[in-house]
Design a protein that fits this description.
Order of helices and strands: EEEHHHHHEHEHEHEEEHEEHEEEEEH
Number of domains: 2
Bound molecules: 5-S-methyl-1-O-phosphono-5-thio-D-ribulose
Oligomer: single chain
Number of helices: 11
Radius of gyration: 19 Å
CATH superfamily of the largest domain: Translation initiation factor eif-2b, domain 2
Strand content: 15-25%
Largest sheet: 7 strands, mixed
Number of strands: 16
Distance between the termini: 32 Å
Shape: globular
CATH class of the largest domain: Alpha Beta
Helix content: 40-55%
């Protein structure tokens, strides 16, 4: 198969403003937001109009750059950096990108602070685009021969640079294996799999089937899945991985079925400051996301709800961590540190 294109470029920088595809409106409406500063960028990230670990890092980088372009100075820089870092807690890419832009701004003179911030944001976006291609190459080697691949949430072009992380691996496999079929978990509560991954795969013409999250383990047990590949929001120093809630259950099922469970992400998602997965803050989101289904109530009024947006998969369940710098197989303290040093 010919090289598959990027399904969409969800963040477009015009030199002054950031145009962001509103992911809460997909797949039925393609609505573009025009972001102008830190506050509206942080709001878009908080309500998941802009989402996915590398993608929120890129957006936040531009958010900070736009803010200091409008209000140059150290005070606005620090305030905007705090605001953006606090928009969501789990994906480390957010704080990582904000810190990079902040440091680039601080390293320049007051007269060039805003230009330095804008240039750094553009460098981050370009680096995440390039990382996606390298992740696709490494991941397709790790999973060569897999024909039925299951994925969770959306780790595609909407969530990352380039063609994504886990979904870039899937596309590279599809280029090698014309019969590839992707099993897309719907990903309750916000249906990033059903709404976004299915949309992306449809746009690039890769065969896929949608399933409810609870169907995945049974299909793995019946031998109907060759491998699982997912993205990640934060990887601890020991290789434990935080990703969209439901990921851990897929990892347990994959281990029980004896199939590979592969995590793909750029090294910007590795957080060496967090020793293991227990130290990763898991975002708890609004009860309505669970008690309602796309705005329609599904539980009796007043039902108490838990809504952790992520879970942590221990490193020992991960067959390989695929990054743009290479593969840690399995991920462990030494192999993860080696990726950061590479
Ligand atoms: O809450 P979301 O939609 O931002 O969660 C996204 C995920 O969990 C993705 O799997 C993760 O960010 C990896 S995308 C490269």
């Amino acid at each position: 198969m010919a090289v598959l294109p990027r399904a969409v470029t969800p963040l477009r920088w015009d030199g002054r403003r950031l145009h962001a595809l509103d992911q809460t409106r997909l797949p039925h409406e393609e609505v573009w937001l025009e972001l102008e500063g830190a506050q509206d960028t942080a709001d878009a990230i908080r309500r998941l109009a802009v989402r996915g670990a590398p993608n929120i890092g890129i957006a936040a980088a531009y958010g900070l750059a736009m803010e200091v372009s409008g209000r140059p100075g150290l005070g606005p820089l620090e305030d905007a950096a705090d605001l953006l870092r606090g928009a969501r807690p789990t994906a480390v890419n957010l704080a990582w990108a904000v810190d990079r832009v902040r440091e680039a701004a601080l390293a320049s003179s007051p007269a060039t602070l805003a230009a330095a911030a804008r240039a750094e944001a553009q460098r981050i976006q370009a680096a995440e685009d390039a990382a996606s291609d390298a992740i696709a190459r490494h991941g397709a080697e790790v999973l060569a021969g897999a024909r039925r691949v299951l994925t969770h949430c959306n780790a595609g072009a909407l969530a990352c640079g380039g063609r994504g992380t886990a979904l870039a691996v899937v596309l590279a496999l599809a280029e090698q294996e014309p019969d590839l079929e992707v099993l897309v978990c719907e990903t309750r509560p916000l249906l990033q799999g059903a709404r976004l991954t299915a949309w992306e795969l449809g746009r690039v013409g890769v065969a896929h089937q949608l399933l409810v999250d609870g169907a995945a383990a049974g299909l793995m047990r019946r031998g109907e899945v060759d491998a699982v590949v997912v993205g990640c929001d934060r990887v601890a120093a020991n290789g434990d991985v935080a990703n969209k809630v439901g990921t851990y259950a897929h990892a347990l099922a994959a281990r029980a079925a004896g199939i590979p469970f592969v995590v793909a992400g750029p090294t910007s998602t590795i957080d060496p400051a967090i020793d293991d997965g227990d130290g990763i803050e898991v975002e708890e989101r609004d009860a309505d996301e669970v008690a309602e289904l796309l705005g329609t109530p599904v539980a009796p009024e007043g039902t108490r709800v838990r809504n952790p947006a992520f879970d942590v998969t221990p490193a020992e369940l991960v067959t390989a961590l695929v990054t743009e710098r290479g593969v840690a197989a399995p991920p462990a303290r030494a192999s993860v540190a080696a990726l950061l040093d590479a």
